[in-house]
Structure formats: structure tokens, C-alpha cells
Design a protein that fits this description.
The complex is a heterodimer of chains A (469) and B (368). Chain A has helices at residues 2-41, 47-50, 71-79, 99-107, 149-159, 178-188, 221-244, 259-264, 275-289, 312-332, 343-358, 360-376, 382-409, 417-433, 435-450; strands at 58-64, 86-93, 109-112, 125-131, 139-144, 164-168, 173-174, 192-201, 206-208, 211-214, 254-258, 295-306. Chain A has 469 residues and is of the alpha/beta class. A 10-stranded mixed sheet of chain A has the order 3-4-5-2-1-6-11-8-12-7, sandwiched between helices. In chain A, strands 9-10 form a two-stranded antiparallel sheet. Chain A starts with a helix and ends in a 19-residue tail after the last helix. In chain B, helix 6 (135-147) runs parallel beside helix 8, helix 11 runs antiparallel to helix 12 and helix 16 packs across helix 18. The radius of gyration of chain B is 31 Å and the shape is extended. Chain B has 368 residues and is mainly α. Chains A and B meet through helix 1, helix 6, helix 13 and helix 14 of A and helix 1, helix 6, helix 9 and helix 18 of B.
Chain lengths: 469, 368
């Protein structure tokens, strides 16, 4: 009995040590990658891209479902992006509200005879519309039957003719130079098949005409926790994976892909709720299976600002969906796991995601239960217990402070001194207040997955802060 | 579970390590905020102090009919030099302001900015950066000297083009394109590594302001051992409409590498090289299975073929298995004029209206 309990505790200790070790490696790699990025791009003349015939064309695909309240402003903000050769494809995914009517009247849209080819299967497209007003010549609207976000993105892929496609969330605020920055990795390296950008939280930020005017930390504590979490995930995790060329997730809010490869790989999978991660994995898998050298790039610049859920209910739904999406992707591509044919993805990224992303909540819950069992049996060395607890708390603080450091030495968007203090205080509270909820939502997501739940879950938003008149 | 020191010691070490690192990082961030805000204040101060003086100096030089008296200019220069004293930050603010001015001006006014930059001795400040150990500082020096058109430093920059650090060498090569008045792009002869699209784009940006006659003959690099250089040269010959490159491009159509062939097709299309029509047509058998290359070929033929001969040449591609190729063929035929349009409509009718949707698409004015 004693031996088996000891063995279990060793397993937990090894797991924890592995998590800490990976984090330390990731912090180091991400700081190196961030420094390199800052150095290389410090003197980059992005404006040269604007006037160059060598710059690739980009199709921005934005699915819209019941976005009637904000769609016109959102499209106007996309029309104001700085890039020369781009088109905006808004896919009205069978909205039940007045999304389409609002666009028709605001942009003077009429039906065109677009001969659409279904290279990727989607729900039926009812019509394709374009504006009679030359000022909106970049805009194309697809009106189709409801099929979900992935299906809508696939319809956009079918219509697009440009070399690159940017898949975005229509309600995000995209920085005006985002396309210039996102396209650069494709220009620097012909093997790049996709690039992702950092997504930041815009709650309490001042947004005017779809443009970010002032960056502020959110007022709600829940959103503040997510700011910390996003900085950590984007500036530490994803940058480190980019350095290793092992990135398998580009946020669905803003990603740029080589169209032909996305189409060849089969486009987005409409049956999953984690279509963003699934597409990157499938594109990479396709590249490996065809023996093509490739890279997925990642831009640490904050290029896309989104409204984070500010209620537990909505955040819970989002995290539930993320968990199911991760599981579905890992399960669909399980043959890649520990398969040397898929290089670093098969041997490191996939195992990491399986063990330390998907499995982590289960391990944490199991650890807590194990602790209670030991406590009930009077087998806890309380000195050691509190020592480990304090050590792990310090580790959590260290990780968050590294993320803050990365932000400080790079983009420095939260400029006030009190912002740093506020963020550090949040980092101190987060392990007790926010982390347990994230774990619970993840567990719940897995249970829902077992039950066969496939819904997205309704995401209600409050809207951005508008300037006072 | 036992309180053996063997368990406790590593935990203690790890805990102290994380705590110490956290404290150090947080202190660093707070200190960095203070330094940044102080620096910003000083920079704002310098900016306010200099902007008026620089503007005065430039405006007087440009607009005074008889020119500013040399003594007045010398006085202003001396005053500015004195105020900068030996502060690197002040000099940097001044350099940044002059670069902004230079980029917003052209002609005589721009020349005046360049002169003032030299009179203030700021070129020495930028030049000093070239020998710095810090690669960013060196790249910054190159960037400043280039933007201020300091032709005298070409040799120093040339030397930097061969250093191992990619950031500096790329920056130096772009600077050479900008500063070298001969614009012979000599460095392409021995360029090692891939000439990325980003580099190509930067080079193109500086070449497009040059008079076409001053540009080198890009065909000399068509067969360069570095394929990226060859591809760049091919695309530039098309961009700059170097008709003299047509025979060499036609020869490239026989190249074994599909990238070279596709690039040559693009260039011939841009050059509207009617003389290469037969060579292009002869390619169709070889490229038939490549959708991308065929679509390019059809597009190119549509642009260069004679309207009277267009349908005969292009109708072969209407049976291609790829939709993209068929679409390009219909589009190309329709662009040849009303006669060709009528012919394709009759052809469509005779073939069970299989091209009707494409025809509708092509004819829709909002889609073209």
C-alpha cells in the first residue's frame, strides 16, 4: 500500500517537474525569439509592401452570423486596413437577423454572376453580392445557408482568388498595419504556409470607428485575468513553439494562410468546434505527407484586439469549447502522435499538447483528490506540503512576470506604471481565483465531449468602449 | 511523504530561485518604466527645442532669394551644435527629426536637409555607429546614412555587406542599391543564399525611381547560379519593360525548372511579347498537367495574341480538365473583342452551354 502510494506521488512529482522544465525552456526560447523579431524588424520599411507588385494579394474572410448590430461598422473598419492588393469576403452564414439587409443598404450591394466552384464542400451558397459603389470595390458578400463558422470560412476559401487568405473574426479590431506585418514572414521565407498574430483583449479600450484609439486595462477582474493569461499564452507559449517550428495553433480571430495549401489540405473541418487549430494541424500534416519543407510563422505584435467574455457563464462556454476543440483535433490526428514521420510536430508538439494541455486539468484534479486521500490517512508531511505549495506559487508568479517582462521589452502597450502593479497583483491572485475555474471548465468540456456535445455555445458581448461626445 | 531533506532541498532551491527571479523581473520592469518615462521627457524636450531651429534653417536656405548670409547660418549651426553638446540622446533626436524632414521633402529642400545634417556633424555620429559592436546600432547607422543620402560612405557600407550578420548585411545591400549612383546591382553577381521576396521588394522600391535607361540589363542574371537571383532578374525585366530581354526569356521557356518557366511566362506577359507567341504555344503540351502554369500560359497568350488569331490559339484550352484554365481561356477570349466574344458564345452553344456560367461571370462588369 505504502509503495503504491509512494509511486503515485512520484508520478505527480515527475509530471510537475516536467511542466516546470518545459516552461523554463519556453521562457528562454520565447525571449530569444522576441529579441530576434524586434531586431530584424526594427528598421523594416513596411510601407514598401504597399507599392510593390511583388506583394501577394490577400483575401480577408470574415464569417458573420447575427451580427446586425455591428456589421456595418465592422466592415468599414476592415475597409480601412492599410494594404494595396486585398479583398474582403464577408460570409453571411444564414443569419436570422438583418445582417445581410444592413450590408446591402449600407454598401449598395447587388447580386453578381459569380461562377463559384465548390473546391471545398460547403452548405449551398444562395448568392454572391458586390457593391455598385467603387469606394467599396474590395467588398464581396457571400450569402449562404447556415453551416457554422468553419463552413462559412470554407465558402470564403472557394470564392477567394488571392494567394493568401486571412481568416478573421468580424467583430475583432484589427490594427491598420496588421496585414503588412502578417505578410512579411511569407515574403522573407517561401516555405511559410501560415502566420498568426497576437490577439489582445480590448475590454475597456477606447475604440472609434472600428479603430483602437487608446489601450487600457479592463475594469472587470475576470477580463483582467484573461489579459494576463493571453499575454502569457501569446508571448511565451506560441513564440517558443515558433522558434522550434512546432506551432500548431493559430488563433481563429486572426490568421493568414496560403490559400492553395489550405484548399489542398481540405479546408476547415466543419465537424469540429476547434476549426482554427485543426486547420493548422491538417495543413502541416499535408505538408509532411507530401514531403514539403514548411514553417508556420508567428508575429508577436499585438495586431488583433478582441472583446473577452466578462461573465463567468460566457467564459465557461468559451473554455468548454476550446477544450472540446483541442480534444477533437488531437483525436482526429492521433496518428501523428509520437510518429517520427511528422517531425517535431509528431514527436514534441502533439505529445506536449496531449500531456500538458489536454491532460493537465485531469492531472490537477487527480492530484487534489490524491492529496485528500493522503490527508485522510494522515500521511501528509505538512512541512513539505506547504513548501511545495509555496514553490509552485512562486513558479506561477515567475511565469507571469516573465510574460510581463516580454511585454515590457517589446510592445509596451500598457504604458501606465499602475498597470504593471495591477497586472502583478492579478498574477498573485490568479492561481487561487481564476485557475481553478479554468480547470473546472476544461473538465466540464471533456465531459460534454463524451456526451457528444457539438454546439459552439452562445457568446454574448457587451461591445467596445466608445468615445464620449 | 516523508520529510527527508533529500525532498526538501530541491524544492527550497527551486522556490527561492523563482521568487528571486520574480522580484528581479518586477524591479526591472518598474525601473524600466521610470527610465522610459524620463527618457521620453528628455526626448520631448529636445524635440521641442530643435524642431523650430531646424525648420528655420531649412526654410531660410530654401526660400530666401539671395540665400541666407553664411555668417547667420554658421551662427545657427553653432548654436545647435552647442545645445546638443555631447549628448547622444540629443544627437539621436536631431538625426530622427532630420530624417523625418528629409523623407517629407524632395528636390532642393531635401538637399538642404542633407547639407544641414552634414554641417551639424551628424554624419559623424551615424558613421560612428558602423563600428559599434551592437548589430542594431550598426544597422541603425547604415539606415541613417542611407536615408540622408551620404554617398561618401559607400565603401564603409560595402564592407558591411559581407559581414556574417544577416540583419546588417541585408541592410547594407539595400543601402548600396539606394546610394550607388551607377545602380549596377553588382552584389547580385556573387549573392549567396536566398534572395528573399522581402529583399527583392526592397530593391525594387529603390529601383523604381531610377530612370529606365539607368537600370542594368536584368537578362545578365537570368542564368545566375543562384536561382533566387535569376527569378528576381526575370521578374524585374518584366516590371521594367526591358523588351531587349524577350529573346532570353523565350529561351528560358525551355528551362527544366517550373518556377523559372512560370516566371518567364509572367515576364513575357508583362512585356506583351507577341514575338514569343509560338514558343509559348509550344509549351502547352509540356505544361498541360500543371494547372498553375497552364493558367498563367493562357493568361499570357490572351494578352499577346492577335485578336484575329485569338480564338484559334486559345480554344485549345477550353477543354482543359482544370476549371481555372478553362476560366482563364474564356476570359482571355472575351477580352479579344466583340467578334471573339460572339465566336465563344457560338462555341458554348454548340457544346451544350458548358461555358455559360463562366461567360456570365466574365461579362459581369462588377466582377472585372
Amino acid at each position: 500500500m505504502w509503495d503504491s502510494l509512494h509511486a503515485v506521488s512520484v508520478v505527480f512529482a515527475v509530471y510537475a517537474a516536467a511542466v516546470v522544465l518545459f516552461s523554463l525552456v519556453f521562457v528562454t526560447l520565447s525571449i530569444i525569439q522576441l529579441k530576434t523579431y524586434m531586431q530584424v524588424n526594427r528598421f523594416a520599411e513596411y510601407k514598401y509592401i504597399l507599392s510593390s507588385p511583388l506583394a501577394p494579394g490577400i483575401s480577408l474572410i470574415a464569417p458573420a452570423y447575427n451580427e446586425g448590430l455591428t456589421i456595418v461598422d465592422n466592415v468599414k473598419s476592415l475597409l480601412a486596413l492599410v494594404y494595396n492588393n486585398y479583398e474582403i469576403i464577408i460570409v453571411n452564414d444564414g443569419s436570422k437577423d438583418d445582417t445581410l439587409q444592413k450590408m446591402i443598404s449600407a454598401f449598395d450591394l447587388v447580386k453578381v454572376n459569380f461562377d463559384l466552384q465548390y473546391r471545398v464542400q460547403t452548405k449551398a451558397v444562395r448568392q454572391v453580392l458586390k457593391s455598385r459603389n467603387k469606394a467599396f470595390r474590395r467588398l464581396v458578400v457571400i450569402d449562404k445557408e447556415n453551416g457554422g463558422k468553419a463552413d462559412a470560412l470554407n465558402a470564403g476559401l472557394n470564392l477567394s482568388k488571392n494567394d493568401l487568405v486571412a481568416c478573421i473574426d468580424v467583430d475583432c479590431v484589427i490594427e491598420s498595419e496588421a496585414l503588412l506585418k502578417m505578410v512579411k514572414p511569407f515574403l522573407e521565407d517561401s516555405t511559410v504556409i501560415a502566420s498568426g498574430g497576437v490577439v489582445r483583449i480590448a475590454n475597456s479600450c477606447r475604440v472609434e470607428d472600428g479603430r483602437l484609439i487608446e489601450v487600457r486595462l479592463p475594469e472587470s477582474n475576470l477580463a483582467l485575468m484573461q489579459v494576463m493569461e493571453y499575454i502569457r499564452a501569446f508571448l511565451i507559449g506560441r513564440l517558443a513553439w515558433t522558434k522550434l517550428n512546432g506551432l500548431i495553433l493559430i488563433s481563429g480571430a486572426f490568421g493568414l494562410f496560403k490559400r492553395e495549401i489550405a484548399v489542398q489540405a481540405g479546408g476547415y473541418d466543419s465537424s469540429t468546434v476547434g476549426e482554427d487549430m485543426e486547420l493548422v494541424v491538417r495543413m502541416r500534416r499535408w505538408m509532411y505527407e507530401h514531403n514539403y519543407k514548411h514553417r508556420v510563422a508567428y508575429i508577436p505584435d499585438p495586431l488583433c484586439w478582441t472583446e473577452a467574455p466578462s461573465s463567468n457563464k460566457v467564459l465557461g462556454r468559451q473554455r468548454n469549447r476550446w477544450t472540446r476543440g483541442t480534444f477533437e483535433t488531437l483525436y482526429t490526428h492521433r496518428t501523428m502522435l509520437f510518429n517520427y514521420r511528422y517531425g517535431l510536430i509528431g514527436m514534441l508538439s502533439f505529445p506536449y499538447w496531449m500531456l500538458f494541455e489536454w491532460l493537465a486539468p485531469f492531472v490537477e484534479i487527480a492530484g487534489v483528490l490524491f492529496f485528500f486521500v493522503l490527508a485522510a490517512m494522515g500521511m501528509i508531511n505538512w512541512n513539505l506540503f506547504f513548501l511545495i505549495l509555496a514553490c509552485m506559487y512562486c513558479y506561477a508568479l515567475f511565469l507571469s512576470s516573465c510574460a510581463l517582462l516580454a511585454e515590457e521589452i517589446s510592445f509596451y502597450r500598457y504604458t501606465r506604471k499602475r498597470d504593471v502593479v495591477k497586472m502583478f497583483l492579478i498574477a498573485m491572485v490568479e492561481p487561487f481565483w481564476f485557475h481553478p475555474r479554468v480547470i473546472w471548465w476544461a473538465i466540464k468540456g471533456n465531459i460534454d465531449q463524451l456526451k457528444g456535445k457539438k454546439e459552439w455555445g452562445e457568446m454574448t458581448r457587451k461591445g467596445f468602449v466608445k468615445p464620449t461626445v | 511523504m516523508t520529510g527527508h531533506p533529500i525532498y526538501e532541498l530541491p524544492v527550497w532551491i527551486a522556490g527561492i530561485f523563482f521568487l528571486a527571479c520574480t522580484a528581479a523581473i518586477v524591479s526591472f520592469i518598474l525601473a524600466s518604466r521610470i527610465v522610459k518615462s524620463l527618457k521620453k521627457k528628455r526626448m520631448d524636450y529636445f524635440r521641442n527645442a530643435y524642431s523650430k531651429s531646424i525648420n528655420n534653417l531649412i526654410m531660410h536656405e530654401v526660400y530666401s532669394s539671395s540665400g541666407n548670409p553664411p555668417s547667420a547660418q554658421s551662427f545657427q549651426i553653432a548654436e545647435l551644435k552647442k545645445s546638443m553638446n555631447s549628448s547622444s540622446l540629443a544627437k539621436q533626436v536631431m538625426v530622427d527629426q532630420m530624417i523625418t524632414q528629409r523623407e517629407n521633402l524632395s528636390g532642393a529642400s531635401a538637399k538642404v536637409v542633407e547639407q544641414v545634417y552634414e554641417l551639424l556633424g551628424l554624419h559623424h555620429f551615424s558613421l560612428k555607429k558602423l563600428s559599434s559592436l551592437n548589430s542594431i546600432s550598426r544597422a541603425q547607422g547604415v539606415s541613417e546614412l542611407t536615408k540622408m543620402h551620404c554617398h561618401a560612405v559607400i565603401d564603409e557600407i560595402k564592407a558591411l555587406g559581407e559581414v556574417g550578420n544577416r540583419i546588417i548585411s541585408d541592410k547594407a545591400l539595400i543601402a548600396l542599391v539606394r546610394l550607388d549612383e551607377k545602380k549596377d546591382l553588382f552584389f547580385l553577381d556573387n549573392y549567396k543564399g536566398e534572395l528573399s521576396k522581402w529583399m527583392q521588394l526592397n530593391i525594387y522600391h529603390h529601383l523604381r525611381d531610377v530612370h529606365p535607361r539607368a537600370l542594368p540589363e536584368f537578362s545578365r542574371w537570368f542564368n545566375n547560379s543562384n536561382m533566387s537571383v535569376g527569378l528576381f532578374a526575370i521578374s524585374m525585366s518584366g516590371e521594367f519593360k526591358q523588351s531587349s530581354a524577350i529573346p532570353a526569356l523565350a529561351i528560358l521557356l525551355r528551362h527544366t525548372d517550373p518556377q523559372i518557366v512560370e516566371s518567364a511566362i509572367d515576364a513575357l506577359e508583362q512585356l506583351e511579347a507577341h514575338s514569343a507567341c509560338e514558343e509559348l504555344l509550344a509549351l502547352s503540351d509540356r505544361l498541360w498537367s500543371s494547372e498553375r502554369a497552364m493558367a498563367k500560359l493562357v493568361k499570357c497568350l490572351g494578352r499577346i495574341v492577335l485578336p484575329s488569331d485569338g480564338f484559334r490559339v486559345l480554344h485549345l484550352f477550353l477543354n482543359h480538365p482544370s476549371y481555372e484554365v478553362r476560366f482563364e481561356a474564356v476570359k482571355a477570349i472575351c477580352s479579344l473583342g466583340p467578334e471573339a466574344r460572339e465566336t465563344i458564345e457560338s462555341f458554348d452553344e454548340a457544346n451544350g452551354f458548358q461555358y455559360s456560367k463562366i461567360l456570365l461571370h466574365v461579362k459581369d462588369s462588377l466582377l472585372n
